[in-house]
Amino acid sequence: MILKIVLEPSDEGGYTVYVPSLPGCISEGDTEQEALSNIREAIELYLAPTDDDVLIDDEAEVRELVV
Prior knowledge:
By secondary structure, this protein is α+β, with helices and mostly antiparallel strands. It has one domain (about 1-65): Double Stranded RNA Binding Domain. It has one helix at about 30-45; strands at about 5-10, 15-20, 25-30. It has a three-stranded antiparallel β-sheet with strand order 1-2-3, with helices on one face. The longest helix has 16 residues, at about 30-45. The termini are close together.
């Protein structure tokens, strides 16, 4: 999956980085490389499924789709 990110220098030093297509997915780092590593982890956590994501009806079918 390819996502666009926004990497901005922070007023306090370091960098802030966020993913416009994933609301609330934001991170930061002291260096550009650290900020990129941190946002990668934040994206993985943001997209990780949880058991309570969806309540599924007994007649529903669950499938996976690669995007």
